[in-house]
UniProtKB/TrEMBL annotation:
It comes from Aspergillus steynii IBT 23096. Belongs to the carbon-nitrogen hydrolase superfamily. Nitrilase family. Pfam families: CN_hydrolase (PF00795). Residues 16-291 form the CN hydrolase domain. One of its GO terms (molecular function) is acyltransferase activity. Gene3D superfamilies: Carbon-nitrogen hydrolase. InterPro entries: C-N_Hydrolase, C-N_Hydrolase_sf, Nitrilases_CHs. Keywords: Acyltransferase, Transferase. This is Nitrilase/cyanide hydratase and apolipo protein N-acyltransferase.
Length: 319
């Protein structure tokens, strides 16, 4: 017996092709990094993707040198100066170019950047932007809490709790790095019934942890919790990034190791990896998503609905 045809109460797409862009920025160069993002948006469109996710702060790159270079080293201030001048205002000329690329490609794109206040000389945020296939900027989400050394260059987010938008296929959401394992951030998205989620990550994180493991565990857990498809987008590592970050013995070994492994993947609503990069470098893994899988999975667990008890938080709110 054939399966019944999908029926919905709204006129939404039931299937969509997803893409995870594992690319490297032109490090601390906003114009060149923006051009690279636009190139990959158009490539995703050529492959008939409906959504493409990009890494954390892909414009103009992630400030990982703060995990290596001493704070009193002149390079720290020089790198911050470069980061500030190559961060972008929203809206601005860079967002116009990205919007144009999305129109050309007819694709939703989630793009990370270092954001600054226009016409000022201070204050940056770690920001995600969601663009629609008509080129409109649909959402700006600033990272709720910068992680460890990120606090030295990025301020806490000021854009509020919403990290999702309604689309023609359901709810598209995004979180940055450690936010993807934040229980309250995940609950917020569950209540908004996220359908496709973009989890954006840096090229690696200085320290004893492997980013490919941390990002994979977080994204699989989040997909299972949200009962959503998760695009797990990690940045690639290039020589211009390495030159800025290598400072002490062991730095080169860690970067070489992180450079060699694939990190980006796409995860289905049961937490299973359905597409991935198995080697380092640039790539664009794709997966066809049957969005009815999100409905079927919620028969078991809907943490924004029938499988939750909000009174569990009552004593915390009344304290």
């Amino acid at each position: 017996m054939s399966a019944p045809e999908s029926t919905t109460t709204t006129n939404r797409r039931s299937k969509i092709k997803l893409a995870a862009a594992q690319i490297a920025p032109c490090f601390l160069k906003k114009t060149e990094s923006t051009k690279r993002v636009c190139q990959w948006i158009r490539e995703a469109g050529k492959q008939e993707a409906g959504v493409v996710g990009f890494p954390e702060t892909i414009i103009p790159g992630y400030p990982a040198w703060l995990g290596h270079v001493p704070l009193d080293d002149a390079r720290t201030m020089q790198n911050y100066q470069r980061l500030f001048h190559n961060s972008i205002a929203i809206p601005g000329p860079e967002t116009e170019l990205i919007g144009e690329a999305c129109r050309d490609a007819a694709v939703y794109a989630v793009v990370g950047c270092s954001e600054k206040r226009d016409n000022t000389t201070g204050t940056l945020w770690n920001t995600q932007m969601i663009f629609g296939p008509n080129g409109d900027l649909l959402l700006k989400h600033q990272k709720y809490v910068p992680t460890v050394f990120e606090k030295l260059v990025h301020a806490p987010g000021t854009t509020g709790a919403h990290a999702s938008v309604q689309t023609d296929f359901g709810v598209l959401s995004t979180l940055i790095c450690g936010e993807n394992s934040n229980p309250l951030a995940a609950y917020n998205l569950a209540c908004e019934s996220a359908t496709v989620h973009v989890a954006s990550w840096p090229p690696y994180y200085p320290g004893p942890w492997s980013l490919d493991h941390c990002s994979r565990v977080s994204s699989q857990g989040l997909a299972y919790t949200l009962k959503a498809f998760v695009i797990n987008a990690c940045a690639a590592i290039q020589d211009d990034f390495v030159e800025v970050c290598v400072c002490k013995p062991g730095d080169q070994r860690q970067l070489d190791r992180e450079r060699s492994v694939g990190k980006s993947s796409i995860v289905n609503p049961m937490g299973e990896v359905v597409a991935e990069l198995t080697e380092g470098g640039k790539g664009l893994p794709f997966a066809e998503a049957d969005l009815e899988e999100t409905t079927v999975a919620k028969f078991t667990h809907d943490y924004g609905g029938h499988y939750n008890r909000p009174e569990l938080f009552t004593h915390l709110l009344s304290a």
